[in-house]
């Protein structure tokens, strides 16, 4: 982890993205630059962290070409640390760096999507079974409160916050921290491709969370697992349509994956 010091790096942010660049109009990237462009020991660490956070937060679209010169101007540094950062991000699997063509934001293939949701199904049904063995009345009450919020709330930042609380409680993150961490990592590996999208007229969360809590409260492991499995299958099919361009979903807020 980079040690921080007071003061900026590279002479400030250099303003927003230059007109005509690959990042024109992406206010979220400017926000990341503004938030992270000062306080790092080295310019290289700062540039790497800015680009990494921008990628993880969806500031760049999958398949988007990242122009080193435009990025350097937006951050307020030379091209050298940008190139070095992109090479690091290539090693992490966030971008694909081509010596002659530059860097491109990595996309999610159909095969990778299938693998991710197969792993999620295995891990989440295991977590559910394990958690139900030690379920308490207090946890059921907490789950029901959050389930009712999820089933009545539109997608967006508030929805995502409640969803995190719900699933951490459902899978008993206190007793199973590593298991829940793995599940959340898999969810995030897909979620960053879906920033800005929602499901129009989807039945993906209307009543689903409350029904799942009903099964859990009754101790019906089979029905609880089936409900969870069906949800993950539905979500994976919806995500596949979004990534293939076959969906009629419109940009608005985040898909409840």
From TrEMBL:
MF terms (GO), sorted A to Z: DNA binding; DNA-binding transcription factor activity
Protein name: GntR family transcriptional regulator
Region (Disordered): 1-21
InterPro entries per the UniProt record, alphabetical: GntR_C (IPR011711), TF_FadR/GntR_C (IPR008920), Tscrpt_reg_HTH_GntR (IPR000524), WH-like_DNA-bd_sf (IPR036388), WH_DNA-bd_sf (IPR036390)
SMART domains per the UniProt record, alphabetical: FCD, HTH_GNTR
Coiled coil: none
Gene3D superfamilies: GntR ligand-binding domain-like, Winged helix-like DNA-binding domain superfamily/Winged helix DNA-binding domain
Organism: Amycolatopsis carbonis
Compositionally biased spans, kind Gly residues: 7-18
High-level lineage: Bacteria, Bacillati, Actinomycetota, Actinomycetes, Pseudonocardiales
UniProt KW keywords: DNA-binding, Transcription, Transcription regulation
Domain HTH gntR-type: 41-108
Domain of life assignment: Bacteria
């Amino acid at each position: 982890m980079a040690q921080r010091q007071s003061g900026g790096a590279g002479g400030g942010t250099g303003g927003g993205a230059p007109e005509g660049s690959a990042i024109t109009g992406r206010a979220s990237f400017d926000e990341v630059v503004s938030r992270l462009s000062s306080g790092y020991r080295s310019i290289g660490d700062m540039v790497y962290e800015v680009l990494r956070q921008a990628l993880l937060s969806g500031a760049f679209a999958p398949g988007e070409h990242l122009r080193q010169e435009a990025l350097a101007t937006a951050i307020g540094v030379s091209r050298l640390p940008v190139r070095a950062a992109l090479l690091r991000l290539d090693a992490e699997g966030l971008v694909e760096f081509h010596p002659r063509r530059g860097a491109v934001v990595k996309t999610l293939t159909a095969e990778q999507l299938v693998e991710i949701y197969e792993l999620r199904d295995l891990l989440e049904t295991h977590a559910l079974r394990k958690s139900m063995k030690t379920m308490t009345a207090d946890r059921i009450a907490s789950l029901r409160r959050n389930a009712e919020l999820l089933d009545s709330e539109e997608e967006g930042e508030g929805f995502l916050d409640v969803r995190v609380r719900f699933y951490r409680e459902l899978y008993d993150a206190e007793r199973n921290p590593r298991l829940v961490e793995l599940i959340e990592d898999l969810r995030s590996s897909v979620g960053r491709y879906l920033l800005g999208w929602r499901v129009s007229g989807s039945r993906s969360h209307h009543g689903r969370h409350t029904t799942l809590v009903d099964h859990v409260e009754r101790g019906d492991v089979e029905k609880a697992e089936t409900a969870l499995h069906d949800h993950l299958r539905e979500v994976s099919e919806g995500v596949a349509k979004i990534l293939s361009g076959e969906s009629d979903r419109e940009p608005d807020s985040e898909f409840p994956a």
